[in-house]
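cache lookup: miss for this entity combination. No prior model stored, computing from scratch. Input as submitted by user K.M.:
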Amino acid sequence: MQHWLVKSEPETYSWADLVKDGRTMWDGVRNYQARNNMQQMQPGDLVLFYHSVSEKAIVGIAKVDKAAYPDPTAKDDKGKWVVVDLVPFRDFKEPVTLEQIKKDERLQDIALLRQSRLSVMPLKAEEFDILLALGN
DNA sequence: GCCAACGTTGGC
DNA sequence: GCCAACGTTGGC
C-alpha cells in the first residue's frame, strides 16, 4: 500500500466538507506530475489531507475508494486528466502544521517542503508514520 | 529547441 | 499584498 498527501484550500474544499459529503471526486487536477501520482493510487491507499494557504496543516486522513478514471470535468481533453474518489477515514486529533513539519529533522525530504506547489504527492511510509504520530 | 512573457500556487 | 517557484505558451 502506498501513502499520499493531497492539498486543498479549505475555502475551496475542506476536510469538513469531505466528512460531511462522505465521499468526493478529486477533480480539477491540471498538473502532469500530480496526475501521474493520482494514476498510481489504489483503493485502500491512505491520503493525508492538507489545508493550504489559510491553515497550512494536515487535518485528516482520507482513503482512496476508487482508482483513477477520466475526469468528467475536463472538457476539451477528456482522457488526459483523471480523478480518484476519496472517502474520509479518520480525523487528526491535532492538526500537524507546516511549521512543525519544517522543524522536524526526519521530515526534511518530504515533497511538501521540497516542491511546495505540487498538489498531489507520494509520502514515504516512514514519513506517513511520523506525521500520523504527530497528529495523534 | 530556446527563452521571454505570463499565469498560478502558496508561503510569508 | 508581495514575491519566489514553477508550469505553460508562443515567438523566433
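stored under new cache key. Residues 31-32, 115-118 of chain A lie near DNA strand C (CB under 10 Å from a C1').
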